[in-house]
Design brief:
Layout lengths: L1 H7 L1 H11 L4 H4 L4 H19 L1 H19 L1
Helix pairs in contact: 1-5, 2-5, 4-5
Length: 72
């Protein structure tokens, strides 16, 4: 149960990272950094969900954080 509550913290973390790196957005938005990373994380999460749930939840946390950071 605690691991799912930790996943909720990924959204505020992504928003905080977006505000902290607001000045650098022009640098990391030139090349498609985030879409490639998001696809890799989504695929790895799907694979690791069948192997190890702890790794899958960690990858899901990273995925939600980066997705929120990209959209903010």
């Amino acid at each position: 149960m605690i691991e799912y509550l930790t996943l909720i913290l990924a959204i505020p973390l992504g928003l905080a990272l977006a505000t902290i790196t607001k000045d650098e957005k022009q640098i990391y938005s030139r090349i498609q950094y985030f879409p490639v990373i998001l696809w890799i994380l989504a695929l790895a999460t799907a694979i690791f969900y069948t192997i190890n749930k702890q790794i899958a939840l960690t990858l899901t946390f990273i995925f939600i954080t980066i997705f929120t950071w990209n959209k903010a």
